[in-house]
Amino acid sequence: MKHLKTLLFAAVLFIGATSFTNAQNKIAHINTQELIKAMPEYKAAQAEIEKLGKTYEADIQGSLKELDTKLKQYNAEADAQTEETNMKRMEEVEGMKQSLSQYQQQAQKDLQEKEFNLLKPITEKAKQAIQKVAKAQGFEYVLDAQTLIVADGKNLMADVKAEMGI
Question: Measured between alpha carbons, how far is residue 154 from residues 108, 130, 134 in Å?
Fold first, then answer.
């Protein structure tokens, strides 16, 4: 009976140690941001966002020059105009400033929306590749390496890049 208890105790310890070892091996990590930045789709999306940003910037700079020109003209002609005309001109300039401010805010909003819409399918593709590699290699958990303090587990970066053809 004593041998049976000893044998049973040894079996429980063996199973527990095996489970603990397996649990440690089922955790991996990857730097998702680094993976996404390595994707060709990301580079194309960034180029498109940059192009749109430059277009908005050119429009804003053009409007600023137009505003500056009007201000200089109105200031030069202010002494020759009636007070009523000068007040209308000031209101016109203030309206232009408000329109420009609204345009800048809308441009920023449009850029953020465009970036979100372009990056969403890219991040989904990366997530699917990570899930596929993790499942194929038997990992139960994959952590983002950016938030890890100690990363002794398997780094899936090379395997996921290979899966995606990067």
Answer: 40, 13, 10
Does residue 84 sit within a domain?
A: yes
pLDDT for residue 134 is more than 70:
yes
> Is position 87 within any domain?
yes
Average pLDDT of the chain? 85
Q: Locate all alpha helices (DSSP H) within the chain, ordered by sequence.
A: 2-25, 32-38, 40-77, 83-137, 157-164
The count of structural domains within the chain is: 1
**Is 19 domain-assigned?**
no
Q: Residue 97 pLDDT > 80, yes or no?
A: yes
Q: Report, as an integer, the average pLDDT of 88-97.
A: 92
SS3 150: coil
CATH of the domain at 52: 3.30.910
- Three-class SS of residue 151? coil
State the residue range of the domain holding 88.
Answer: 24-164
95 assigned to some structural domain: yes
Q: Has residue 4 got a pLDDT over 70?
A: no
Q: Alpha carbon of 127 to those of 29, 81, 123, 130, 157: distances in Å?
A: 13, 66, 6, 5, 12
First to last CA, the chain: 61
Whole-angstrom Cα distance, residue 145 to residue 30? 5
Q: What is the pLDDT of residue 40?
A: 94
